Amino acid sequence: MKKIELDKVIIELLDSNLLLISLKENITIEGEDVLEIKKHNLDLMKGNNYAIVFDSGHYTSVSKEARELMTSSKVEKNRVASAFIIYSLSQKILGNFYLKVNKPNVPTKLFSDKEKAITWIKEELKKSNQ
Questions:
Q1: Which of 36, 81, 90, 104 is the most exposed place for a label (fewest CB within 10 A)?
Q2: CB 81 within 8 A of CB 128
Q3: Which residues fall within 8 angstroms of residue 120, CB to CB, at 6 or more apart?
Q4: 3-128 belongs to which homologous superfamily?
Q5: Cα separation, 30 vs 67, whole angstroms
Q6: Cβ-contact 36, 69 below 8 angstroms
Q7: What distance in Å separates the CA atoms of residue 106 and residue 81, rounded to the nearest whole number?
Q8: Residue 130 has pLDDT above 80, yes or no
Q9: Mean pLDDT of the region 35-43
Q10: For residue 1, what pLDDT is reported?
């Protein structure tokens, strides 16, 4: 399994077209972090389509700029779906805000259970390959 550790996240290749991005604790994701993560995602995926499971970690947040970038065509390129694993009420509120205000262009869902997130994202990958 390929793994890349950055300052704020760990990116793991779970399957040929599935990434797990785990946020480290007590961090805020900024716009430049989103761009750095995207670069590594494309490198790992070799330009192919893929899906992401984001493990939000504990005591993390995402800046307004980062949320906006995450739904831009530049960053969503090649991404077919996203699942977010959340742990707290504040993450749930932020996640629902992201879904309603930033409106991702790919199927995106919040989960409190990692296995359910992975099961859902694999179903989305199957749909995208049909």
A1: 90
A2: yes
A3: 83, 109, 111
A4: STAS domain (3.30.750.24)
A5: 9
A6: no
A7: 5
A8: no
A9: 95
A10: 67
Query: What token pair was written down for 105?
Result: 């262009």
CB within 8 A of 93, min separation 6: which ones? Answer: none
Q: Which long-range contacts (CB under 8 A, 24 or more apart) does 71-74 make?
A: 71/102, 71/103, 71/104, 71/105, 73/105, 74/38
Whether the pTM exceeds 0.90: the reply is yes
Q: What is the 3-state secondary structure (H, E, C) of the chain?
A: CCEEECCCEEEEEEECCEEEEEECCCCEECHHHHHHHHHHHHHHHCCCCEEEEEECCCCCEECHHHHHHHCCHHHHCCEEEEEEECCCHHHHHHHHHHHHHHCCCCCEEEECCHHHHHHHHHHHHHHHCC
Task: Quote the mean pLDDT of the chain.
Answer: 94
Alpha carbon 66 to its chain centroid, in Å, reads 12
Tokens (6 digits) for 17: 């077209």
Neighbours of 83 (CB within 10 A): 25
